[in-house]
């Protein structure tokens, strides 16, 4: 308990020294510091709201056509905005992911069909491995006899 009081007194002393060292334009109200209100100043410079343009490469031109943004390469302007290029790239990403999903589903269906065909022919990985091992043993025995 005695230690807590000493700690509190030390903190209280530090806070009072902080108040004395603060800027004079800060007001101390009920122990809280607030800055004086300043009127907002209009910017001294004028900002031009032009979007930075980019000259597309041949690959980016193909992306713009594939995404459906332009029909022909002649329709693409000399400079385009980065936002237009990003939107075209995102469309292509989405189309590629849909294609990958479709190919994955088609591959799964194909493998299920092939597995069912193998079951009908009584083929399994175990039987195929046993046949392969028997064949390799026969070949090894034939080589041993030949020597």
From TrEMBL:
It comes from the Eukaryota. It is a single-pass membrane protein. Pfam families: DUF1075. Proposed to be involved in regulation of apoptosis; the exact mechanism may differ between cell types/tissues. May be involved in hypoxia-induced cell death of transformed cells implicating cytochrome C release and caspase activation (such as CASP9) and inducing mitochondrial permeability transition. May be involved in hypoxia-induced cell death of neuronal cells probably by promoting release of AIFM1 from mitochondria to cytoplasm and its translocation to the nucleus; however, the involvement of caspases has been reported conflictingly. PANTHER family: GROWTH AND TRANSFORMATION-DEPENDENT PROTEIN, PROTEIN FAM162A. Interacts with HSP90AB1; HSP90AB1 is essential for FAM162A mitochondrial localization and pro-apoptotic activity. Interacts with VDAC2; the interaction is probably involved in inducing mitochondrial permeability transition. Belongs to the UPF0389 family. This is Protein FAM162A. It comes from Chrysochloris asiatica (Cape golden mole).
